[in-house]
Write a structure and sequence with these properties.
The structure is a homodimer. Chain A is built from six helices and five strands; from the N terminus they run ααααββββαβα. By secondary structure, chain A is α+β, with helices and mostly antiparallel strands. Chain A has two domains: about 110 residues, Orthogonal Bundle (Arc Repressor Mutant, subunit A); about 55 residues, 2-Layer Sandwich (Dna Ligase, domain 1), CATH 3.30.1490. Bound molecules: zinc ion (4 copies). The first copy, chain A, binds a DNA duplex (30 and 30 nucleotides) through α2 and α4.
Chain lengths: ~170, ~170
DNA sequence: ATTGCTATTGAGACTTAATCTCAATTTCAT
DNA sequence: ATGAAATTGAGATTAAGTCTCAATAGCAAT
């Protein structure tokens, strides 16, 4: 068993800032995944189904190790390697969002009709607060346009102390 | 000898976007460092001097491994451990800026009168282009204020393809 | 300059997230 | 049902970063 790094995990729920879901997008992520796989000549295996289900059962951010443990505790059998191999696929087909943090480990969140958003991360309690600023997004586009830089993605993470930890 | 990871290093010079130096700030970074160390009861060793000099000889971003190799090639003798121990000190006293990237390795850049800035990173050629947007900075402050989040630092990295690579 | 208390160093061991290996197994189009 | 090709998983490997600890160096006080 891999030793888990010790990290503050308290209160790792997103704050009130989460953009609400758009119910417009269908629930059938399995169909999306299946089609994606088929198109690439890949196979929808039992393991991939388990991972997909589990990803969509999660309603907040998670890191891979946490995710692996959760699957294991449920008695489902999927290897760490398969998880590491499947998440990039889910990323590629747009069902999952990867947020590379300034910490070593990236975290993930299923998309399921969520909008893009960025993050405030509390250095004391580990809380992740989502925010979305159309103005900032627009300015980024502007910056890229001016430099003829073709933007594919971005990471904006603000680190500091949340209001609970700052007052303590 | 530690095996280097293979990464695209071509054209890793910053683009034209670098904010110009402010000549107002004195050149005497060694004095700054010495005072800082003294205040903390730490010592200005030969190794620390070498590292400091070398950091300020670099005029763009660098990662630790690259940095270590460069020092070694010059025949200067400083261990990897010392570099890993010294850079956080330089960070702490504000002489160096650490930019955690979405890649595994962070990169560094000496400050020396530079303003804060963020980065465009080209995924094809590895080029790092700096930019600074007062408007974005202001919006970030605004977001934090609204959430009573005390911001300490932030990372904004936009990934994509630079104009040279996009046209190719 | 000498002394002595600490901070520091460096070689190499260790940690750990992530990737790779490869034989055994599973998927799925035919 | 069949077989080519993709996939799996246990464990090895990689590599950035951290830690250990005996030997050494800085420096303040004498
Ligand atoms: Zn954004
Ligand atoms: Zn907090
Ligand atoms: Zn900024
Ligand atoms: Zn490029």
């Amino acid at each position: 068993m891999r030793k888990r790094r010790e990290t503050k995990k308290t209160g790792r729920r997103a704050g009130s800032a989460r953009p609400e879901r758009s119910p417009a997008q269908g629930e059938d992520y399995e169909a999306v995944f299946r089609d994606f796989l088929q198109e690439k000549g890949l196979k929808l295996t039992r393991e991939r189904k388990v991972i997909l289900e589990e990803v969509f059962r999660h309603d907040d951010h998670f890191d891979i190790d946490e995710f692996y443990l959760k699957i294991k505790q449920k008695g489902l059998k999927v290897s760490r390697a398969s998880i590491y191999r499947t998440l990039p696929l889910l990323l590629e087909c747009g069902l999952v969002d990867e947020v590379k943090t300034t910490e070593r480990q990236a975290f993930y969140e299923h998309i399921h009709g969520r909008r893009h958003h960025d993050h405030l991360v509390c250095l004391s309690c580990g809380k992740v607060i989502e925010f979305y600023s159309p103005a900032i997004e627009r300015l980024q586009e502007e910056i890229c346009r001016r430099r003829r830089f073709k933007s594919l993605r971005h990471v904006l993470e603000i680190q500091g102390h949340c209001k609970d930890c700052a007052s303590a």
